[in-house]
Design a protein that fits this description.
By secondary structure, this protein is mostly helical. 49% of the residues lie in helices and 0% in strands. The chain has four helices and no strands.
């Protein structure tokens, strides 16, 4: 807006023109908000002076090291404890088998449903029983 456009007309409403003139005088004494460039310059001056100049996270440079990280070879699938693999198959396969029986084989005998539920429960119980009950005091938990 141009200040010339804000000039009171004097003809329409003298009270309105008076209010507009009051706001214009109030606005002249109000502090001006600094621009983004001015704020950046102030912050740069604030944080880059003095004996203990603070560096930010973008000032970090990685040190070049000669040694290269080579991860360990992962274990082959199925090379773990066969009982744990069987328990996971029972715990996950039981509900999946139940779902498939309900969708595709509705006339399945009751012992199929009962067997699938029992397999699921046995698999979950076995997995829960294998969980450690005490923490190792020397283990910091950093290794997965």
């Amino acid at each position: 807006m141009n200040p010339a456009e804000n000039k009171p007309s004097g003809a329409d409403d003298p009270r309105w023109d008076e209010l507009v003139e009051n706001f214009r005088t109030l606005d002249q004494g109000a502090p001006r908000e600094p621009s983004a460039a001015e704020r950046q310059a102030e912050l740069r001056q604030l944080f880059s002076t003095g004996p203990g100049a603070v560096t930010g996270p973008r000032d970090y440079e990685v040190e070049d090291t000669e040694e290269e990280f080579i991860p360990d070879e992962p274990a082959a699938l199925g090379s773990g404890n066969p009982m744990v693999n069987l328990a996971w198959t029972m715990a996950a396969g039981g509900p999946i088998g139940l779902l498939l029986c309900v969708i595709f084989f509705r006339s399945a005998p009751a012992f199929v449903y009962i067997g699938l539920v029992a397999l699921s429960i046995i698999g979950v119980i076995y997995l829960l029983r294998r969980l450690p009950t005490e923490r190792d005091p020397g283990d910091d938990g950093a290794r997965v």
